Amino acid sequence: xxxxxxxxxxxxxxxxxxxxxxxxxxxxxxxxxxxxxxxxxxxxxxxxxxxxxxxxxxxxxxxxxxxxxxxxxxxxxxxxxxxxxxxxxxxxxxxxxxxxxxxxxxxxxxxxxxxxxxxxxxxxxxxxxxxxxxxxxxxxxxxxxxxxxxxxxxxxxxxxxxxxxxxxxxxxxxxxxxxxxxxxxxxxxxxxxxxxxxxxxxxxxxxxxxxxxxxxxxxxxxxxxxxxxxxxxxxxxxxxxxxxxxxxxxxxxxxxxxxxxxxxxxxxxxxxxxxxxxxxx
Length: 281
Known about the structure:
alpha/beta, Rossmann fold, 6-stranded parallel β-sheet, two-stranded antiparallel ribbon, globular
């Protein structure tokens, strides 16, 4: 068999070339199994940013939306039950309501990274448990909420669900985490790498906590990172957000806004294989 060229068997259905959001597949040919993984053609868009404009390849880019969940964004959720004003966590909602449909229409994948802990807290460290419950009267991870039949951030409960204002699409991917960062002890990295993703656009909450932690780890793992600033929120003081933006621009990637991203998405080239972009993990 000629290793340099494996002709396809026309009687055997072959997998389509890979695309962002589609899982790679082997192909059965008349001469055996082909392990060649076809790269999707680039689909570049130009995003105007400060100080430099950025070219992104939608064929290898994912939008990562972090922690837009009832327990953080709904007044009956965990934060609301703690007496925390949830309006900063709700600030990204209208921006994401514009960005998500445009992003999906471009054919690039959406990845929701959400807290989703075990009911027995068996894999939560003492640090995490203490920071979530600092007094006997406080509500900690996994404990019942007073206004809902739900436990704080337990996977499958109401509190851990994405808020109703941001409906998920059947083709979206979901990864559950139990750390500030979405990468440690989760399948996030393998889900992204199996789809050939190299660039991540980050949105969600909180800017200085889970979003920044996940963005940092993504950079450490070799991903190109962009922070979609107006699609993020935090209850921390404004100077904290400014510091995060500075650190991202200085060390980890780029900061962009939806007013620059949306026109670029509208002008994006069509995906080569739209049916394969709906394949989920």
